[in-house]
Amino acid sequence: MCGRFTQSYTWRELYELYRLTCQPVNIEPRYNIAPTTMINVVVPHGTGRDLPTMRWGLIPSWWKKTAKEAPSTFNARAETVATKPMFRAAFKRSRCLIPASGYYEWKATPTGKQPYYISAHDASVLSFAGLWDEWRDIETGEAVKSCTIIVTDANALTRQIHDRMQPWLTGVSGTELLKPAPEDMLQMWPVSRKVNRVGNDSDPTLIDVIRYSA
């Protein structure tokens, strides 16, 4: 499961990696992104690719209740994403990629859950396979674009994407692409438990290595 992640890349990095065709945007580094906040998302747009911001936590277009009443949809499991009602329509027609600099996982210890930060060995941008949809808020009438990150049994899909990006975004390929990242691609280290607190996503020290006693 991916419940927190970071986005600390530059526009130039994303422009070159995803071959973006939209206008440049100002990207502020964020080190503790939590569900329901707004994130950068790569989507097909005409003959090119755009980088809009979307709510992290998918609300399907057919949802008839409020956003607060929506179930937890910030992650979708790879083995059921094509069939679950909350995701199956988006799986068929609206794929996306969610760029990340790294993400957090927690390990149980005698003193409580210890967060670890996971990133690429070469510090490159990671790409999570995702889905998105547009919903009309029943209270305000506002159009809300939202997304979900697809996860596998081991972790979120984080791999070099040049050879897989186009088949995923266009829908030519299906769940066969949704596999764990190779073990030698990632690195991991313990970080401060300050990451447990939501709302402090501008603190770069959250990803610093710490020493702790298990």
Short recap of the structure:
This protein is mainly beta and 214 residues long. The chain has helices at 11-18, 88-93, 165-170; strands spanning 5-7, 30-33, 38-40, 43-45, 48-50, 53-56, 75-77, 95-100, 102-109, 112-120, 126-136, 143-151, 186-190. Helices cover 9% and strands 33% of the residues.
Integer-rounded radius of gyration: 17 Å
Query: What is the CATH class name of the domain at 5-27 and 34-100 and 124-179?
Result: Alpha Beta
The low-confidence parts are 155-163
Q: How far is the first residue's CA from the last residue's CA?
A: 22 Å
Please report the total strand number as a whole number: 13
The shape is globular
* Strand/helix succession: EHEEEEEEHEEEEEHE
Would you tell me the overall average pLDDT?
Answer: 88
Give your account of this protein's structure.
The protein has 214 residues and is mainly beta. It has a domain at 5-27 and 34-100 and 124-179: hypothetical protein yedk fold, CATH 3.90.1680. The protein is 9% helix and 33% strand. The chain is built from 3 helices and 13 strands. It has helices spanning 11-18, 88-93, 165-170, and strands at residues 5-7, 30-33, 38-40, 43-45, 48-50, 53-56, 75-77, 95-100, 102-109, 112-120, 126-136, 143-151, 186-190.
